[in-house]
Amino acid sequence: MGYGMFTVGxxxxxxxxxxxxxxxxxQTVDLNLLADDNPFNxxxxxxxxxxxxxxxxxxxxxxxxxxxxxxxxxxxxGWSEMSIDIGDNWIxxxxxASINYGPGVDWAVFYTLPNAGFNGVEIISQVGDxxxxxxxxxxxxxxxxxxxxxxxxxxxxxPSFNDWVNSxxxxxxxxxxxxxxxxxxxxxxxxxxxxxxTPDGSIISSGIRVDLAFVPAPGALGLIAFAGIGMGRRRRR
Length: 237
Fold this sequence. Notes:
Elements: E1 12-15, E2 28-35, E3 44-52, E4 59-67, E5 75-86, E6 90-100, E7 107-112, E8 119-125, E9 132-141, E10 146-147, H1 159-167, E11 178-182, E12 185-189, E13 193-197, E14 200-214, E15 227-232
Antiparallel strand pairs: 1-9, 2-3, 2-8, 4-5, 5-6, 6-14, 7-13, 7-15, 8-12, 9-14, 10-13, 11-12
């Protein structure tokens, strides 16, 4: 897998037919993080409530990362962060991390949890029709994204579970990840999106952007999902 610089560019698109809206900035939206039942956590529902779209990041979740090779003696190896930033006509899902896992591990992969259904963001307008005319997704940052099924992380420990993960494989830029549940609600499925990187302590930042086009008038938007970090020696399918 080669690492390179990825500029924002259209890679996949989905068109909607709606009425009226002119962007999200200054709008208050309901943001929800949702997942259908899955083997990891049985599904979840986090209703974040009213969020005002501003020039600041609307949601983030960060934490320390530990090496649990010895469960009785976890070792701190760095930090990771996910965030959702909503602009007037775009939404960014970003992964940032600085992790140094030590000798014997030449790669790591960060991933949102795979799901045969939905694991992602629900954005609900408080003023009616979102007015989205079209939406398209693209990579940004220094790492390109894939789906966690590419890495076969569970092949050795649980082949049947690994087969299930493989059955959830979906291109991160697949237009079917984006959809209007109704004219007031946008859903963005982030299931299984993953980034491989070298865990050497350097700070990495990468993500996916959804660009939006509106039919002129008032609108709204927003947010994300659970995740994990897999470590190991290199395996390729």
